[in-house]
Amino acid sequence: MRCVTEAWDRHETELRRFLRHRAGSDAEGDDLLQEVFLRALRQANGLCGIGNPRAWLFHVARNLLIDRLRLARDQVPLPDDLMAEPEIAAAVVDSLAQCLPRILAEISPQDREAITLCDIEGMTQQEFAKRLGLSLPAAKSRVQRARVRLKARMTESCQVTFDAAGGVCCFVPRPPL
Questions:
Q1: Which terminal CB of the chain, N or C, has fewer other CB atoms within 10 Å?
Q2: Looking at per-residue confidence, does 75 or 154 come out higher?
Q3: pTM value?
């Protein structure tokens, strides 16, 4: 506690000027100053374990200013029907899964293994690399290339079209094998 009061006595005036100038009003600057003081009090061992208490106090003050600016940004209310769109998109993607077994049967065995293990069964790429005796970057490349080829094959075979945001819009299902 002694370290906090000593550092506070030395730097309070400078901190107050800094915060009032950047906050836009004396009242908001004083509110931020109080928050800096509370955080200094909550600091483990006060400020005794900190080599440069002034730098720490200004760092906390700067972060508080940034947080306030983020919260002060204009926010636009979202329309009520916005939540319905992801449900529709999810239904389209779920029904697109009907094309997956057939497409998986048509791609190369290496691509099928990468997609099946990493994307369908949930194996990590690190585990995939160990299983195949590959380096992690090589395994990541293999999985990424397999995904690109799978997407191209599904787009072609199932006539997948995408909306402006890149999400699946619609497709023509193919019968399973």
A1: C
A2: 154
A3: 0.47
